[in-house]
Amino acid sequence: MSVPQGVKETLLWKKATELVEKIQVFSDRILDSEFDIYSVSKNLRRNANDLQCYIEDSYSGSSKTSRNKNAYLAEVSVSECINCLNQAERLHLGEPSEL
């Protein structure tokens, strides 16, 4: 899927891309841990990648309802990333403040 024209220039897209890159590095370290019994690294990556997809879709949606739905789902993805990072911290899998 191609990124809609103009979305890459937005601050939202740039910050989301930066977050995804940092989460991938962070989750790589968790993945190496034998204590990741709750698949925190997998959930982090999935939600971070979903975030970018929802942002793209919110810019390319055919209707206002579709764009609003995707914007909401992007917000949910960010919340899920935060929950995963909190879980990683509680399980001593990493220090989310590194992000």
What is shown here, in short?
Helices cover 70% and strands 0% of the residues.
Provide structural commentary:
With 99 residues, the chain is mainly α. The chain is 70% helix and 0% strand. It contains three helices and no strands. The radius of gyration is 15 Å and the shape is elongated. The model has no long low-confidence stretch (mean pLDDT 84).
Task: Set down the secondary structure blueprint.
Layout: H1 11-31, H2 40-60, H3 64-90
Helix pairs in contact: 1-2, 2-3
Summary tags:
99 residues, 70% helix
Radius of gyration: 15 Å
- What is the number of helical segments per DSSP (H or I, 4+ residues)? 3
Shape: elongated
Q: Could you report the average pLDDT, rounded to the nearest whole number?
A: 84
Topology pattern, helix = H, strand = E: HHH
Low-confidence stretches: none
How many strands, what sense, and barrel or not for the largest sheet? none
In total, how many beta strands?
0
Hey, roughly how much beta strand do the residues contain?
under 5%
Category by helix and strand content: mainly alpha
Distance separating the two termini? 28 Å
* Estimated helix fraction: 55-70%
